[in-house]
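Here is an idea for our session: we take a single protein and study its fold together. Start from the sequence, derive the backbone structure tokens from it, and show both lines together. Once you have written the record down, we can walk along the chain together:
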Amino acid sequence: METKRELSCDELKRQVITAVENADCDSEFILGIKNYLNIFFNDPVPADLFDEAKKLLNDECHNARVAFKDSFLISKNWLNRIIGENWDKEFMHIFFIDDNGELSIVFRFSDTETFRSTVGQDINLDLNKESAYLLKNGQVIQFDRLSSEFSSLTAAYKQGVGNRISTIQNSMLTEYITYSMKKIFLFNGFEHDITLELGCVVDSMNKKNRLTLFTYVNDKDRIHHINQTYARVYEGYYDLGNLKP
């Protein structure tokens, strides 16, 4: 009895392209592909959206007369290391903190998607299940049992640099940003040092200005977009996170 042979990668691509070309735009097939992409693929953003976010941040900060650090460099070696150490976690969170009056960030890896600081000590780090790393000069310092509680870090952020940020007109404070590890793994390791750049976007739910992070990635494993001549472009801006709370 003849069995169906396994398709090669190129054959599978051709079949998928043919199916997409023949499908109606409102078909369940296309909607299913859209949902799949939203769940599993990174979220590349065009350069003009990044430029708008930087301009909004600069304009609002200028109007409010506030200043704080607006970019954070982490070396590729440290970033790949902490991701590799936490390959079994579902989420990477980037928490904003106050570091002696200056804005800084902490990487936290967890299976918890949303932390609720108003319910007991839910926001605090459980070292039996989670890991966290403070960014310092492009490197990271891992949290241990002597490190500050996250509830203390959050409180200090709100009272310190976060309080200055809150003076920005029509703003809502972003405490942390949540990233899907499934999306991060699609880069298959970062090939260059990464600079996380602050931008300001208008939250679609409450119409408030909120801080977010963008990063420019040049990675041979990830097609960022297809240009107008249908050439593959492997570099560009990404904004992968969900703003919390």
Remarks:
- The longest strand covers residues 209-218.
